[in-house]
Amino acid sequence: MRSLDLPVEDFIKLRNLVYDRTGIYLGEHKVYFMKKRVQKRMEALGIPSAREYFRFLKFFDGEQREFQELINLLTVNETYFFREFSQLQVFAEACLPEVIQRKLATGERTIKVFSAGCSTGEEPYTLAIILKEMIDDLDRWDVVIKAADIDQRVLAAARRGLYDIRSVKDVPPPYLTRYFTSPVPGEFLIKPEIRDMVVFEHLNLMDRRALRYESNYDFIFCRNVLIYFDESSRKQVVDRFYAMLNKGGFVFLGHAESLSRISTAFRITRLGNHIVYQA
User: Fold this and answer.
1) Which residues contact 226 (CB under 8 A, 6 or more apart)?
2) Which residue of 34, 156, 205, 277 is 20 to 30 Å from 75, comparing CA positions?
3) Among residues 74, 94, 112, which one ends one of the domains?
4) Would you state the pLDDT for residue 230?
5) 3-class SS at 260?
C-alpha cells in the first residue's frame, strides 16, 4: 500500500475518537506518528482510506477490538526495573515506613499499591521487590499490588514476567540473583514469589465505572502517564486518584510531571530531591 494520505479533517476525527474514549490527546504535531500506525491497521484490515477506517471504528467495531489494536500501537511503553531509583528510595525509606507505622498504630496490616500505566510490568514488580526487602514480617501483611494498563499486549508480556538485559540493567546485583532466574543467557524471569504479589488488569483510566470500585490505596504510582492527557483529562484522573487513596496515602508522578496546576487537594512535600503528593 502506498503512503497513507491523512487529511487534517480525518486526523482530527480519529484523534477526537481516541481522546473521547481514552483521554489520550494527540496534538497536531502527532499527525505523522498517528498516520504510520493507522496505516498499519488499515493494511491489516484491507481498508483503503482513513475516512473508511474511522467509520469502521465508529460504527462497526462493536466490541472495540480494532480500537484496542490501534491503542496498542499508539501507546509508548518505555520502561525498566528500578527506573528513577532515587524516587523509589524516597518511597522505600520515607513514605513506606510512615504508612506502616500508621497502620500498626491502628492494628491494621494491609498495604495496597496501584501502578497505573504499568506497561510490561517492570514498575509493579520493582515495587513488589522493594516491599519484600523493606518489610521483615511481610508474611503477616495483606499486600495488594494492582497494576493496570490500557494496552492488552503489554499486559500479556507483564504476566509472563520474562525480560531482556536492557530491562534489568538497573537492578542491584543481589536482587537480580534473589528474585530472577535466567532460563537462557540474556533473559531474566521474575520468580513466582514476586510475580504472585502483582495482579494485572486491563483498565482505561478514563473509565469512571471501573475506577469507582478501586479504593483504600496507600500508594499510587502514575509515572510518565499524565503526559498523554490534556488538562481536562488529567484533572479527572487525579480527582479519581484522590478518591482511591486512604487518608495520608501518596501519589508518585514522573520527574517531569506535577499536580500543582491540576489539583489543590494534595499536600505537597519535598523529600530529598523529589516532590511527593499526599492525600
Assistant:
1) 234, 237, 238, 253, 254, 257, 262
2) 277
3) 74
4) 87
5) coil
Check whether 3 has a pLDDT greater than 70. no
Question: Do 178 and 112 share a structural domain?
Answer: yes
Domain that holds residue 45: 8-74
Task: Report CA 114 to chain centroid distance, whole Å.
Answer: 9
- Distances 145 to 59, 150, 243 between C-alpha atoms, Å: 37, 17, 18
pLDDT (0 to 100) of residue 155 = 95
Q: What is the C-alpha separation between 38 and 44, in angstroms, rounded?
A: 10
42: CATH: 1.10.155
- 137 class by beta-carbon count within 10 Å (0-12 exposed, 13-18 middle, 19+ buried): exposed
Find out whether 132 and 164 touch, Cβ atoms under 8 Å: no
CB 26 within 8 A of CB 75: no
3-class SS of residue 267: strand
Nearest to 163 by CA among 214, 111, 121: 121
